[in-house]
Amino acid sequence: MVHRRDALRASKIMQERALANPIIAFQWQSMVEEILGDEGHEVKGVRLKNVKTEARTEMACDGVFIAIGHRPNTALFAGRLHMDERGYIVTEDGTKTSVPGVFACGDVQDHVYRQAVTAAGSGCMAAMDAERFLEAEGG
Ligand SMILES: Cc1cc2nc3c(=O)[nH]c(=O)nc-3n(C[C@H](O)[C@H](O)[C@H](O)COP(=O)(O)OP(=O)(O)OC[C@H]3O[C@@H](n4cnc5c(N)ncnc54)[C@H](O)[C@@H]3O)c2cc1C
């Protein structure tokens, strides 16, 4: 795991699990500068840059999984639903969006908690809001 800082922000218990896992090695204060391998074919390693010393090293690996930050998967609704500057769907009065009859829940509209249980809870809210909307419409 390559990480830019010298510590993780994840919950303590998740950090402890990762740090204690013998098949995970940590490269602190480093970033991936280049993925090495045959163009368009096989990954053979990565070139790392230490963000403090700027020293470059190469590390052999068979694959790369990128997880940096969080961007809501809302491009599909661009121009259709009102969103904030970060791309989160804006909801008000429960799960209502800017389009009547369209309700949003979960990570696409929550930049604060972004947890499974809060997403599930807001999913229930959206289902109830949708049901009430349809009832009011006589559906
Ligand atoms: C690495 C990681 C670790 C996490 N750990 C925890 C944790 O320990 N505890 C916790 O509570 N939460 C955790 N979370 C957060 C949790 O996973 C999310 O908050 C939760 O899954 C959000 O639920 P959601 O239904 O809003 O979105 P998602 O679970 O992302 O579901 C969205 C669904 O929509 C589908 N989809 C996307 N686009 C389309 C489309 N165009 N058409 C049809 N379907 C589409 C996707 O395939 C996906 O199935 C973690 C998240 C990550 C990434």
Overview features:
139 residues; alpha+beta; FAD/NAD(P)-binding domain; three-stranded antiparallel sheet; 3 strands; 22% helix; elongated; binds flavin-adenine dinucleotide
Brief overview:
With 139 residues, this protein is of the alpha+beta class. The chain has helices spanning 12-20, 116-136, and strands at 30-37, 43-50, 56-60. It is elongated, with a radius of gyration of 21 Å.
Describe this structure in words.
There is one protein chain. The protein is an alpha+beta fold and 139 residues long. The protein folds into 2 domains: 12-60, 3-Layer(bba) Sandwich (FAD/NAD(P)-binding domain), CATH 3.50.50; 75-136, FAD/NAD(P)-binding domain, CATH 3.50.50.60. It has 2 helices and 3 strands. It has helices at 12-20, 116-136, and strands at 30-37, 43-50, 56-60. It has a 3-stranded antiparallel sheet with strand order 1-2-3, with no helix packed on it. The longest helix is centred in the C-terminal third of the chain and has 21 residues, at 116-136. The termini are far apart. The mean pLDDT is 95. It binds flavin-adenine dinucleotide. Flavin-adenine dinucleotide is lined by residues 73, 76, 106-107, 114-117, 119.
